[in-house]
Design a protein that fits this description.
By secondary structure, the protein is α/β, with parallel strands linked by helices. The chain has 14 helices and seven strands.
């Protein structure tokens, strides 16, 4: 039996993915879980509770059970000698989340659904455990790059050819084999070949990958069928918000933008991610949001900065909230927001005045 799991982080994307799969693929038997660091915003817990009323049981995973420390984060911070996590040393993600997730799964073949959107340029977590396979339903390419690298490897061109001959319509076969049989080179690399095959036909590509995986130990290959093979949806941020609003679960309050004013100029700020209130991936303007909207949590974040360790490289939170520094951070944020509006306006104008002849054929190299 292949388990199918989905991690509920408390953020918008995983919440929307859970609702999306439940609505569109109701036959999937998905298990939901949440890894609790003990340091999330209250709104995160509220969202998980609302989701549980829609989805059913969400297993709560928690590291360092039985520790005398107030939260799992405090436990591992103490064991690391007060060394704060950072983008270069993400021990918090490893110890508080990934270890607990892999314990939850065990050694059973498992499909893990991941809510990376179609408008995001990142791969996301792929477990090093061979029994866990990540699937990305919101993207045009639902497969993880380890699968793509295996399927499209030059050593497997003949296998891929045979599979396309089984799956593909005979009238279209010669066209797609021009892509399949073209070896990977520095100029024709993995992503270029992948996109060409997806441009040809997403469903056909998915079915070919599915048959290929049946010759491997990947969990999806152990299934008799997999409904996401016919998935052609590509969901972006607007789709995510719509799913949450339409479901009644709603959008966590920390994503909703709040207006601020500095030097007669107006800007907006909010939190861009779920997770711990002191997340080191926060932008400077998000730290100011935390300071002004959740002063108690900001003060708790400050308490962790001991022994020369700081959340932001080269700057303490005490320095971050000095009036002149707040002013500069807000002005910088306003400038970025204005640049984004101008960029979006320029793209809109290009779309409005573009000639049909300006559109390039994606298959012109065939």
């Amino acid at each position: 039996m292949v388990r199918q799991v989905l991690g509920i982080s408390g953020g918008k994307d995983s919440a929307a993915l859970a609702i999306y799969l439940k609505n569109k693929y109701s036959d999937l038997r998905v298990e939901y879980y949440n890894t609790d660091t003990g340091c999330e915003l209250e709104e995160t817990e509220q969202l998980i509770n609302r989701l549980e009323s829609v989805l059913g049981k969400i297993s709560r995973l928690k590291a360092a059970q039985g520790s005398p420390e107030p939260t799992p984060f405090h436990h591992f911070l103490k064991s690391s000698g007060g060394y704060l996590p950072s983008p270069q040393a993400r021990w918090c993600t490893q110890k508080l989340k990934l270890v607990e997730f892999e314990k939850f799964v065990g050694d059973e073949p498992t499909i893990s659904y991941v809510g990376i959107r179609g408008d995001e340029e990142r791969e996301g977590y792929v477990s090093t455990k061979p029994n866990i396979q990540a699937i990305f339903p919101f993207r045009r390419n639902i497969w993880s790059m380890d699968v793509i690298n295996k399927v499209l490897n030059n050593d497997n061109i003949q296998i891929l050819t045979d599979l396309y001959e089984i799956i593909c319509d005979a009238k279209e076969l010669s066209k797609v084999l021009g892509i399949v049989q073209k070896p990977l080179t520095k100029e024709f690399y993995y992503s270029k070949k992948l996109n060409a095959l997806l441009d040809f036909d997403v469903k056909v590509f998915n079915k070919v990958v599915f048959l290929f995986l049946k010759t491997t130990d990947y969990p999806v290959g152990k299934l008799d069928d997999f409904p996401l093979l016919d998935n052609e949806d590509v969901l972006d941020i607007k789709d995510i918000y719509q799913i949450l609003e339409n479901s009644g679960v709603g959008i966590p309050a920390y994503y909703k933008e709040i207006e601020f004013e500095i030097d007669g100029k107006k800007g907006k700020y909010s939190r861009s991610r779920s997770g711990c209130y002191f997340c080191f991936f926060q932008q400077k303007i998000e730290w100011i949001w935390l300071y002004e909207q959740h002063l108690d949590l900001f003060r708790k974040s400050m308490e962790f900065e001991k022994g020369g360790f700081t959340w932001n490289q080269g700057e303490t939170l005490a320095d971050l909230i000095k009036p002149d520094r707040i002013r500069q951070i807000k002005l910088d944020a306003i400038k970025k927001q204005e640049q984004k509006v101008r960029k979006e306006s320029s793209v809109l104008l290009v779309d409005m005045f573009a000639d049909d002849n300006d559109v390039l054929c994606v298959n012109c190299f065939i």
